[in-house]
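Archive entry. Fields below.
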Amino acid sequence: MTQDLKQKQSRTQSLPKAQTGPGRPRGFDEAEALGQALQVFWKQGYEATSIDDLTAAMRLSRSSFYSAFSSKQDVFVAALRAYSENALGTLEQLAQGEREEALEAMVLALSGASDGPKGCMLVNCITELAPHNEQVAEIGRQHLERIEDLFARVLSPQDPGAANSTASALSALAIGILTLRKSGVSAHRIEQALSTARTLFTT
Amino acid sequence: MTQDLKQKQSRTQSLPKAQTGPGRPRGFDEAEALGQALQVFWKQGYEATSIDDLTAAMRLSRSSFYSAFSSKQDVFVAALRAYSENALGTLEQLAQGEREEALEAMVLALSGASDGPKGCMLVNCITELAPHNEQVAEIGRQHLERIEDLFARVLSPQDPGAANSTASALSALAIGILTLRKSGVSAHRIEQALSTARTLFTT
DNA sequence: TTGATATTGGACTAATCAGTTCATTTTTCA
DNA sequence: TGAAAAATGAACTGATTAGTCCAATATCAA
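PREDICTED_STRUCTURE:
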């Protein structure tokens, strides 16, 4: 069996190395490189992505890759965290809008209306890796919980706690729709599920 | 990059070989062996499963494996089809019950209440492989459509067409809950989503 | 310019991958 | 019993994997 994404229990996060003295400066931007890595992981999944895939996308040599990061999974977790922050930021922006428009936009975004066939990276990762890797599961859990909380706040700004059940259902529904989309279920069926989702928050 | 599950366009299905004459009979049951293979693919996913994993689980030598099946993906597709039939059979049984009890049981089964952390195999496969493999996407699509049709028939036996939207939403919701479960979201949040699911079919 | 330090590309390792080949064993039918 | 046929185990192929190492190069401060 291909070894599971190893569970480094509390491995140092790939902090940018302290610039201790003189020397050639890094010829690439770490965040940007992580962004490229993210795209590859997103498209192919963890197991199906090789270091060569990563270095090609990041335009890094193998040695630069390994001097900047400690392993494939290190890059993966860093990219996943960045993705989570970014995706939540987008959702928070959508949540600013008027109640029903905001909810509709959030559900659409979450259900992958614009991500093409790749689907939400975090959902992919949960499905592929969470059962075998607590670190990924934890990132996924936090991501999902923040999404639910966001839904609850938009649903019922005065008393978010009252909307918890609907919030849980809306995130589950959006994630489920994303899976339907990925298998290529007809647009008509997707629209049906979305219309029922709307009934959950239409007053 | 690890090669994607190749797309053999219309490869012969691994039919049991015609018993043409004398010779040592097969020492294993093909369906049973496929069942063992299924367990491994289910637990580990396609990419993370090696031929050694499969032969160990199926208790077959490498050569028996390759004389009975043509490739890893051949076994995979056969196992996936068997899984789909089996899962749909279970759901159809649950669908026999009284309306609300049937719907509740179906949602629970689909959302992985008893599959442990492995989740529904077909949902896993859709997430991992469907975007790159039309054969898997097709199996997933058919599976999901049959589930929706089943929901529609239970929701509204006289006029299943009228319940299409709710049926789509229920399957999406169940699948989404399954993903929540996989990331280890709290039982409380799962129950919240389930309770909202119930409101979709409680008269 | 020089010494120190960092990045870089390419070659390398050892393990693992999917799949093949073949000589041997086991079983069946005649 | 003997020949045909199928199953089997083990060794093998060539490709690919994640990760290491090092000599060459680039860039800094002084």
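CURATOR_NOTE: Chain B is about 65% helix and 0% strand.
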